[in-house]
Amino acid sequence: MTTTTAPTSATRPANADIAALILRVSMGVLFIAHGWMKYSVFTPAGTAGYFASIGLPPFLAYVTIAVEILGGLMLIAGLWTRWVSIVLIPVMVGAAYFGHGSNGFFFSVEGGGWEYPAFWTVALVVQALIGGGAYALRDDRA
């Protein structure tokens, strides 16, 4: 008769590693979706026009699209998760302040309030602190 033993803590990811994986992948998917929306729906030129209308340099639209899509892919893969999260924080702070700040707090208002990008900023800070977690291609834990 063969018996099997449960995986030990050394061979299975801890709950925190699984949580980091879930956070990393879900944020990665959302960043890709938002970057792709700016590219395919609003178009890069349209996004640049919007950025100009809120007082930002239009070239930042192109940078934002690239950072959101590439950053999302890197988060999903678990490549340099801490650094990618830190790079994405100013994008979300900018979205909260410039894109939604004048609309009020709640995201349900017309034009969207700043609550969603503010929460996303906090999630990025958490991701930067905990690292990539389980199944990251490049382990960047301290």
TrEMBL record:
Membrane topology: Multi-pass membrane protein
Assigned keywords, A-Z: Cell membrane, Membrane, Transmembrane, Transmembrane helix
Listed transmembrane segments: 21-39, 59-80, 87-106, 118-137
Record's protein name: LysR family transcriptional regulator
PANTHER family xref list: INNER MEMBRANE PROTEIN YPHA-RELATED, OXIDOREDUCTASE CATD-RELATED
Family: Belongs to the DoxX family.
GO CC annotations, alphabetized: plasma membrane
Pfam families in UniProt: DoxX (PF07681)
Coiled coil: none
Primary site of residence: membrane
Species per Swiss-Prot/TrEMBL record: Pararhodobacter aggregans
Subcellular location: Cell membrane
